[in-house]
């Protein structure tokens, strides 16, 4: 499994990497630190899933999402952010993301979201299912 983690905060990238490596011990994990490096790495290689922050230097996750999906329309992208669901979840899902999580979520919820997305389903926050 190949995962690309994009966040401008190194501590967040390390935390997500650690959570994923505990669950997916053989995962190959790449990192991007801003919008431009995310777009470049996303297009240059094949990733099973991309986990991206919504707010990064150079435009952010939504801009990157749109550019990546133009080149790779079936790319599975999970957006993770500090912003509340009511601010961005619907917007990123409509833009083509496979899922949305807030950064205050439990580590097992991140693993659930990744598993759900890898199985081909969207991970939609329970508050949006209604």
Write a brief structural summary.
With 130 residues, the protein is α/β, with parallel strands linked by helices.
Question: Which structural traits does this protein have?
Answer:
Rossmann fold; 6 helices; 47% helix
Arithmetic mean of pLDDT: 93
CA-based shape: globular
Number of separate helices: 6
The assigned structural class equals alpha/beta
What gyration radius follows from the Cα positions, in whole Å?
13 Å
Measured between the Cα atoms of the first and last residue, the distance is 32 Å
Largest sheet: 5 strands, parallel
Structure commentary:
The chain has one domain: 3-Layer(aba) Sandwich (Rossmann fold), CATH 3.40.50.2300. It starts with a strand and ends with a helix. Helix 1 (10-23) crosses helix 5 (107-118) and helix 2 packs parallel to helix 3 (61-71). The protein has 6 helices and 5 strands. It is globular and about 35 Å long. With 130 residues, the protein is an alpha/beta fold. Strands 2-1-3-4-5 form a 5-stranded parallel β-sheet, with helices on both faces. The mean pLDDT is 93.
